[in-house]
Amino acid sequence: MDDRHIVVVGAGLAGLVAARHLAAAGADVTVIERRDDVGGRVRTRTKDGFTVDRGFQVLFTGYPAVRRELDLEALDLRAFTPGATICRPSRRSVLSDPLRDVRNLFESVRNPEVTTTDKVRTLALRQDVGTRDEAEIFASPDQSIKSYLRDWGFSEDYIDHFVAPFYGGITLDRTLSSSKRVFEYTFKMLSAGQTAVPAAGMQAIPEQLAASAREEGATFRLGKRVEALQSDAGGAVVTTSTDSVEADAVVVATDPKEARRLTGVESIPTDAHGCVTQYYTLPSESALGEGKRIMLNAANPDPNTVVPLSTVAPEYAPAGNELLSATFLGDAAQDESADDLFEKTNRTLEAWYPERYFEDLELLDTESVSFAQFAQPPGIHDSLPGHRDVPGRAYLAGDYTAWSSIQGAMRSGREAAEAVRTDLSA
After folding, report:
1. Distance, CA of 66 to CA of 406 (rounded, Å)
2. Residue ranges in the chain modelled with pLDDT below 70
3. Residue 145 in contact with residue 177, Cβ under 8 Å?
4. Ranges assigned E (strand) in 135-248
5. Are strands 28-33 and 44-47 parallel, antiparallel or unpaired?
6. What's the CA gap between 411 and 399, in Å, rounded?
7. Hey, is 294 helix, strand or coil?
8. pLDDT of residue 113
9. Main-chain dihedrals φ then ψ at residue 370, nearest 5 degrees
10. Spatial distance between the Cα atoms of 2 and 71, rounded to a whole number of angstroms
11. SS3 call for 139
12. Edge-to-edge, what's the strand order for the sheet holding 84-88?
């Protein structure tokens, strides 16, 4: 790979991983990114001293690609308590992982939302998925999450009151019409590691990847949009708004819509699931007191979840303050005003906590994300594009070549780099 010039278009997770591996192999790597910083969909900013991620995002430390590509200790992770709090008007109950949260075992056993039969089936399901790896799960026959859980014999109450809001937060699809493969693998990963956020916010993840790529010799051109791409067996030409760059190969690691525009590969999925996440502040003396668990809305989807972020990661809020987030799913939420969504959250919290008022709850920020994930209906993973589906010396890297997740993005970046190395060494 010495003296080979490789251009990586896009500085999201997949592009950063690809750039690092190619540079480590000796290539002269240039990363071109249209934004002024790295991260793609994984982004963080600071507002009024609070840490605000671009929508509610978490890191599953059990992901193999996460363990391979990241220095988890350097990220200074803050972990959630396994399980969740199931909430409805006038009632909140804890459902923990009995194998990983022994302190709350008794409360979970008594949880009125979940039958003993459902709890036993959950342990059996955990054992079943634990015997299969990622490749086996994503090669298995597919169906929707809801029909899969029904086939396992889970009760409708368990599916509607726990799985729908919990996996609605993971797949951004509370109807559970997404692929059961995603359910199986993420269920496996929930048991394999922690659910966490970096103390400095989720953008610490791409920033670490970018620093590693730079250490290996990759250079970055930020604030440059790629207008066109030409590729043939002899190499590729990338045209930006200001110049053209010749390369021995190009890795296209942009978002799905931009990747389809640049490459013409129609199998790149562009149907999306979006969400709106609002961030709220409370004085510390008014904290919810639910510990480090995600709070699930068992009664309705507005909002789907409420998260005590600064309880999990105190660094997310200035001293004396608490930071909460609430996430609303679907297209309809993006058409509502920020004030209307805030009122829904306020009414929901007052219903969950009838003994108190939330007059000190304040809206800090609203993050509307129209393309948070590509839609993953049953069977979609069988038709996703491969890394070499672009003619000539252009390659695809992105979660849309695997499945929509941090795992999918990072694994894709590494595999795309391996494809480039193999082809240019032939």
Report:
1. 8
2. 1, 97-112
3. yes
4. 195-198, 219-222, 226-232, 235-240, 244-247
5. unpaired
6. 8
7. strand
8. 73
9. -75, -30
10. 27
11. coil
12. 91-95, 84-88, 294-297, 305-307, 321-329, 272-283, 362-374
